[in-house]
Design brief:
single chain, alpha/beta, 3 helices, 5 strands, 24% strand, binds zinc ion
């Protein structure tokens, strides 16, 4: 799985949605919370965040099978985000 940790600002993001908004600056919408991001690049980029890899993989399988929306070209990806700060990882482990 690809890991995205590079973002263009100097801040230390402490929340996954904030980091995702920073990494995927052109995204039409970003939903959910967590380090696993299902990214759909069909037309407008959309990102759905998940706390655990299994849920994210199911979500990816669903949009692969049914399409993510109007102009789906099956341009979907599952990546993991990595915050600079380690604390949020610990927060997430209890949720999964
Ligand atoms: Zn940033
Ligand atoms: Zn699609």
């Amino acid at each position: 799985m690809k890991v995205y940790r590079d973002h263009r600002c100097g801040r230390q993001h402490r929340a996954w949605p904030a980091l995702a908004r920073c990494i995927f600056r052109g995204a039409g919408w970003i939903a959910g919370d967590g380090p696993f991001a299902v990214v759909s690049g069909c037309g407008v980029t959309s990102v759905t965040l998940h706390h655990d890899a299994a849920t994210a993989a199911r979500s990816l399988a669903t949009i692969d099978a049914t399409g993510c929306g109007g102009r789906c070209v099956r341009h979907h990806d599952l990546v993991r985000l990595d915050l600079d700060d380690g604390t949020a990882h610990e927060m997430c482990e209890g949720v999964a």
